[in-house]
Amino acid sequence: MDNLFKPQHLRDFMTEIFLSFDLPHEDSLLATDVLAYSDEHGIDSHGVARLKTYYDLLKAGKINPKPKMRVVREKTSVSTVDGDNGLGLVIGPKCMEMAMDKAGKHGSGWVAVRNTNHYGAAGYYPIMALPKNMIGLSMTNSSKGVAPFNGKEKMLGTNPIAMAFPTEKEPPVVVDFASSTVAYGKVEIAKRKGEKVPLGWCIDKEGRATTVPDAMMEGGALLPLGGTKEGSGHKGFCLATMVDVLTAVLSGANWGPFATPFAIHVAPPERKVGKGIGHFFGAWDIDGFIEVDEFKRNMDDWIKTMRATPPLPGAEKVMIPGDPERLAYAKRIKNGIPLNGEVIKSLEIISRETGIPLPEHTLSSGDG
Amino acid sequence: MDNLFKPQHLRDFMTEIFLSFDLPHEDSLLATDVLAYSDEHGIDSHGVARLKTYYDLLKAGKINPKPKMRVVREKTSVSTVDGDNGLGLVIGPKCMEMAMDKAGKHGSGWVAVRNTNHYGAAGYYPIMALPKNMIGLSMTNSSKGVAPFNGKEKMLGTNPIAMAFPTEKEPPVVVDFASSTVAYGKVEIAKRKGEKVPLGWCIDKEGRATTVPDAMMEGGALLPLGGTKEGSGHKGFCLATMVDVLTAVLSGANWGPFATPFAIHVAPPERKVGKGIGHFFGAWDIDGFIEVDEFKRNMDDWIKTMRATPPLPGAEKVMIPGDPERLAYAKRIKNGIPLNGEVIKSLEIISRETGIPLPEHTLSSGDG
């Protein structure tokens, strides 16, 4: 059974941990805000569940707690930033701000980032653009876990793409998805429950389609969105390609199978082809294209039109991208954030080592 | 059995047809070049096979043969263009040029287009950016054919996205794919052959998964990329959403189910929410991010690395986005372009009505 934590208590704990590594106060709050966004919005795989990995990497001196970001190249609406091996959770929001500054001045702004690390949930960043009446975009590459279409070895990360669109009265449209059929975490969850996974999610080490989580985890690979030939798996490979090139080849980061692993005990990739991993941030100023009010009114209309689609027999109603996260948020802010025993165990280790007490928590009576 | 046409003969025929509607000479050549790109690269659904529809729409006065494009809004690196109801095949390349001009000056350039029509294959446009050492992007919305995830009615077009990345010695990487699992044309082909289609491609008019082409064509719908819940069909819906908003809501075109149909005998949508359909073009100047030579060298390395992935058992080798079209091009430029009886019949009608002779052709001995 899960345990429930108060959102602010979890935030305070995370901030204390970051401060213990001498991160500047502002940076500790920023990194906390990015991780808390995931926990508070039901994206369990990208929040405090990963604190232990950030902690291990900081402790081992593999991530720089006080990075000096610098612009290495620039041209009006675009630039490349070197993240000085800082936390993606800190470098990310700062680079998204830079992209928005450029968009405010020049109609659009684009920042490619190299020498950075895992940046949490991709959706956090485009949402930053909404109060400025901009459309935001973020992408990141990540360590290999996905096979290219027709290939049998891991060559690409789950390379997510996220965009957010402002609205008038309706909630904003927030798109955030990995370019693989599912994230690694979904296969992990099936394994924990002793369940099989659908065909099309992954292959084993021989490249055979498999429904057995262990078969994927022991030398197999996830499949790109679409999965098989019949499902148009080449399209997921196209998406992963776009993300890998824009985030890593364009910025000078490690691309494809050479992306830096987000783990402490994994051997480094056989080649180094750039610096750290890569992100790509962008913003379009709506005012440069159309009256902002007209755009927002039409977005509301668009949302209502899509919601009115009759649902498939037996299916839930048609939801808008961003709805599931908003529903989770409403519930979790009220009831607390459910963490499972494994995650709590990882936080207990951190607590023991740092002397920072674990926040109080209560047994959950449901799914939180 | 297919008939083979010489590429230049088909081009000349198309140009003559466009000229017969008093399109300016330059515009006729441009529209021809866009359609010929598809035929010459094996994208049979988007080339001369659609000439009859453009012809019908021009003949009925539904498309403006002499549009006066105008910039309706602008801000340094972005702008919105009204296509004056011209052919997308003419408005498209001109707007892509505008995006590249902006990218040359400001590092990136973005043009949203409204009041335009079907623009052929999405991949044509980003390829224009390659000789300028830019990364190109194009998207378009299109008339409804695809259900939103969990919905049972057509609400979105197949809304494709295309990008192209320059290289040094390797061929360029060209991504071009619809956000539905498959294009309508793939189901049509199965129907013609009397074959079933895989589950996950489409639903019937009751929203039930179907493998019968007719069941989709008679009131059913295509499914977004990913198809089912297990296949992560919500991700295809996210993609279609991104394309619909950037092309149509942002430009002031008809979005979602209200996109103008690309056909002469289809009733207009029940509501008009903008002008025509919408495109979105973009370009990033690589030189604004990184040394162009370094980028291209790394792209070559990226391509070789991906190609070296061991293939799935029994699968073809791993191909790079753009490979299938290049293979088709090499074959077709040499052997000719294969057209089936149905397409030839449509060209014969045009020929008869205009008095422009159909180009000579020979029976194909294979697949062309």
Predict the CATH topology of the largest domain in chain A: Ribosomal Protein S8, Chain: A, domain 1
Unreliable runs of chain A, pLDDT <50, ≥5 residues? none
What's the multimeric state?
A: homodimer
Give a quick account of the main beta sheet of chain A: strands, pairing sense, barrel closure: 7 strands, mixed
Strand order of the largest sheet of chain A: 2-3-4-11-5-6-7
The number of helices of chain A is 11
User: Greatest contact pair?
Assistant: A-B, 89 and 89 residues
Helix content of chain A: 25-40%
Envelope shape of chain A: globular
Q: Count the strands of chain A?
A: 13
User: Please, what is the average pLDDT of chain A?
Assistant: 96
Helices and strands of chain A, in order, run as EHHHEEHEHEEEHEEHEHEHHEHE
**Helix/strand structural class of chain A:** alpha+beta
N-end to C-end Cα span of chain A: 10 Å
Task: Give the name of the CATH architecture of the largest domain in chain A.
Answer: 2-Layer Sandwich
Protein name (chains A, B): Ldh family oxidoreductase
InterPro entries (chains A, B): Mal/L-sulf/L-lact_DH-like_ah (IPR043144), Mal/L-sulf/L-lact_DH-like_NADP (IPR043143), Mal/L-sulfo/L-lacto_DH-like_sf (IPR036111), Malate/L-lactate_DH-like (IPR003767)
Family (chains A, B): Belongs to the LDH2/MDH2 oxidoreductase family.
Pfam family, one (chains A, B): Ldh_2
